[in-house]
C-alpha cells in the first residue's frame, strides 16, 4: 500500500508556516507521528512533501531519511509543491491530507485530490465545507436540536455586542484559535470592530460561558463508531486566548461521560459525510456539566493524535487508512494519563483516579 501524507504547514505550500514557527512545529509533530505509525504497518510505503528548510526546525528529519519505505520530496516553493501533490495523488493508493480549514485550504486540497482520482482519507468535501464555517455549523446544529453555544453573525457596526460581556469573537473560518478574541469591556468590542471593519461579516460573536473545555475524537468506519477517551483542553484566557495543549483522559463523572457520548452519537447520526478521524471540541458549562455544548467539529487530524497514540499499543494510523477493515475495539491503557503540548511533546503519568 502506498500512502501519500500531505501536511500543509510542512509541505512548502504555506507561507503561513514561514511566518509562525509555532504552527510549523505543531504540523511537524503531527506529520512525524503519522509517518512513524504508517511505517509500522508491514508493506506500507509512505510519500510526503516538505519545504527545503524543514530539517532546520525538525530533528526527526534525519531519521526520516534513513527509512527505506519513506520517500521525502523537498520543495523550494508552493509551485513545486503543487506539482508534487498532483503527481503523488495520481500514484498513491490513498491520500491523507492534514490541513487547516481556514481559507478553504482543507476543502480545496481534498477536492483537488479527488479530481485527480485519489482515495482521500477522512470526511467528504461536503462535511468539510460545513464544519469549516462556524456560522453554518451553528445553524445546522441549532436546526438539528444539538446543544451548542449561541452564535450571532457580525453584520453591521454596533456600539454593543449582541450578547453579554465577556464575549468571544471568532473568525467564521478560523482554526486553532486563529482570529479569536476574548473581550471583557465595551472598549475592547469597539476596538475589535474597528480592526475588522472591512470584513466584519466573516466574524461571529458568542457569549463567554464558564466551564471546562474538552476535546475528543470519534473514529467513524462504515460499520461502527469508536469514541476515544475524552481529554481536557488547557486554555489560557488572560490575556486573550492561548491553546496550551491537553490532558487525556479528563477526570469526569460517569453521567458527564454518558452525556458527551449521547451528544456525539446524535451529531454523527445527523451530519452526513463524516468518516475516519473526526475531532470534537466541547464545553461543559459550570452551571450544569451534564449538559455539554458542541464548540467545534474538526474534520481532520488534530494535535491530540500525538497524545492518543501514546495511550494504546494499537496502531491508530492503520485503522484510519483501512476503514473498511474490521478491527477489534481499540485497547486503551487504563492506568496512564498523557499530557501533550501543541508542539507534540508528551508527558506520560500514572492515572490519577
Structure commentary:
The protein folds into 3 domains: 2-121, 3-Layer(aba) Sandwich (Rossmann fold), CATH 3.40.50.11770; 130-145 and 209-350, 2-Layer Sandwich (D-amino Acid Aminotransferase, Chain A, domain 1), CATH 3.30.470.20; 152-207, Dna Ligase, domain 1 (2-Layer Sandwich). It has helices at residues 8-11, 16-19, 21-39, 54-57, 61-65, 78-91, 105-115, 125-132, 134-143, 186-195, 254-270, 305-308, 316-321; strands spanning 2-7, 45-51, 70-75, 94-98, 152-153, 167-171, 181-183, 203-207, 211-220, 225-227, 231-236, 242-248, 276-285, 293-298, 336-340, 346-350. It has 13 helices and 16 strands. It is α+β, with helices and mostly antiparallel strands. The strands form 3 sheets. Strands 9, 10, 11, 12, 13, 14, 15 and 16 form an 8-stranded antiparallel beta sheet that branches. A 4-stranded parallel beta sheet has the order 3-2-1-4, sandwiched between helices. The longest helix has 19 residues, at 21-39. It is globular. Helix 7 runs antiparallel to helix 8.
